[in-house]
Amino acid sequence: MSGIYLHIPFCKQACHYCNFHFSTSLKLKNELLAALLQEIYLQKDYLKGETIETVYIGGGTPSLLTAQEINQLFETLHQHFDIKSDAECTLEANPDDLTPQSLHKFHQTPINRFSIGIQSFLAADLTYMNRAHNVQQALQCVPMTQDAGFENISIDLIYGTPTLNNESWIKNMETAFEWKVPHISAYGLTVEENTALAHLIEKKKVLAPTDEKAQEQMLILMEKMAENGYEHYEVSNFSKPNHRSKHNTSYWLGKKYVGLGPAAHSYNQISRQWNIAHNVKYIKSIKDNILPAEIEILTEVQKFNEYLMVYLRTSWGADLNKIKNDFPSSYFQHLSREIQVFLSTQKAFIENDQLRLTPTGILIADYLTAQLFVEEIA
Known about the structure:
The protein has 378 residues and is α/β, with parallel strands linked by helices. It is 41% helix and 21% strand.
């Protein structure tokens, strides 16, 4: 089973923290969608006929698409890929794009799951992040989507902003709990290079987030999610029983996927490739029937490091037997040696030959994993 990701690189306005590829101008929208349809054809053999169990339309803001445009994408996908009849089909959406009218039209598409970028129900947070929606839209979008008959809903929340205190963070989560949202993705605010937020902080126009607040609010997050029956199945993802994101879980299980659109990534367990992050160049290349992608054949070291990087973020952890069987013995010896400090400080533990992180280990997951990487020999 494999997955398909489609990147729609358009937004109404730029969020200050975002470093994804997008444009706030829609003038190339029709040309880019035409190129995307052509890329579907060009990439039809990438997964070698494997059945598709998930389709994820992300961005950008794909809820800017019309139902007709979404249907056209799916019609073309069905022409060239074997998509399961019950495939999970997710559309990322912003609260300000969801209305009773738009949701009625989305019902006439294969979309059966929404991932809604709420981020916060606090006006100060939304202003700090430069989100396009307001508090009222944030509070209305989920009940509205549920009333329209969509039950499989995920929402995004962001913690660690200088404008968010612990009391408001708890209130944000409780709002989601009241709606019985089956899936919540929660991310600590990070300052990426060359973003508007980075420039504003550098010019001292806004306060910078702190690691201390992010870690404190992450611990609150884990506690509240557990109290309300959510499984913490990946560092940033929580779900009610049987409501994990199938698409994202396929990434964390190392399954194959094809990414379509500018800046989209693909992976076939042998190599990784990524399209150019430039709308005009992407469109021109596709018109010439040339995939604008760079390809990297993964080395044994890269496969090992990626396995650790991905699996240690999950609740199931890294399988020590797999590491023994699938990688050189020196890699397992390296891991066994380097992990001791994290086992002794209770940042990680081993159970049934699975290496997993404890709650305090999750707080430093990226750092911890990087310490376990094997270095590539030149």
